[in-house]
Amino acid sequence: MMETLTFIILIIISLSIALCMVRVYKGPTTPDRVIALDTVAVNVLAFITVLSMHLNTEMFFDAVLVIAVIAFVGTIAIAKYLMKGDIIE
Amino acid sequence: MSINDIIVSFFLVVGIFFIITGTVGLLRLPDFYNRIHAPTKATTLGVSSIILGAIIHFYGVLPDAGFKELLAIVFIFLTAPVGAHMLAKAAYHSKVKIWKHTIIDERAGKRVIGEELLPREEVLEQKEEERSPD
Predict the structure, then answer these.
(1) Residues A7-54 pLDDT 10s
(2) What pLDDT does A50 receive?
(3) Nearest-neighbour CA in chain A from B99: distance (Å)
(4) Three-class DSSP category at A56
(5) Does the predicted TM-score (pTM) go above 0.90?
(6) Between vectors from CA B44 to CA B41 and to CA B48, what angle results, nearest 5°?
(7) What Rg value do the Cα atoms of chain A yield, rounded?
(8) DSSP codes, B80-116
(9) Total beta-carbon pairs less than 8 A apart between chain A and chain B
(10) Chain B contact set for A62 (CB, 8 A)
(11) Alpha helix stretches (DSSP H) within chain B
(12) Residues in A touching B88 (Cβ below 8 Å)
């Protein structure tokens, strides 16, 4: 029962990532694309969590933490670049 | 199907609802300043709900489950608003266009009506009138 539910939820999260990629393709400005890619990262976090429940293992939670950190640093770096054209002053 | 599974399913369904809401908002809202609201609020709540469901699912099943997941929730709750704030500031500085139905741009102190911008004094007068209707 839980396997079926987690499988359906994995499919829905994949569709959500596809919708985010539509915004990355369309997005009229650069900040639109950045926020869409940030949303993709958050969706990937949810995907990995549900996948670890589906496979009944706990190993993927380290990956959740690492992807959260990398997505945050990437967003901040691109925001600094958009604001000043220079990341490290 | 035990009571544990029912609670986990509830958290998962709530989380996936919020994630889908955030993504559709990202896709359909009219301009960047509206669009940044949907993913940074709704999607963060959805992911936290899903991770909470995972904590309940793994509690007692696997050894030392729970701490890393709670750390992930705290980290997401701390970093999502900071990233959104930085991005909105960067977009404002690089002059991303405001939606034409926007009522007020408080950082510039100007009111947007159609395409024209009213100066700051008139905006303050209008806001004073709105605050005291009598």
Answers:
(1) 999 999 999 999 999 999 987 888 899 999 999 999 999 999 999 989
(2) 92
(3) 13
(4) coil
(5) no
(6) 140
(7) 16
(8) HHHHHHHHHHHHHHTTPPPPTT--EETTTTEEEETTE
(9) 145
(10) 68
(11) 3-28, 32-35, 37-38, 44-58, 67-93, 120-131
(12) 31
Question: With contacts defined as CB-CB under 8 Å, which chain B residues touch A47?
Answer: none
Q: pLDDT, tens digit, for every residue of B13-65?
A: 999 999 999 999 998 988 888 888 888 889 999 999 999 999 888 887 766 66
| Under 8 Å between Cβ of B42 and B16 | no
Q: How far apart are CA A34 and CA A36, in angstroms?
A: 5
Is B65 in a helix, a strand, or coil? coil
> A55 touching B, CB under 8 A?
no
Subunit contact A42:B94, Cβ cutoff 8 A: no
Quick check: A66 contacting B, CB < 8 Å? no
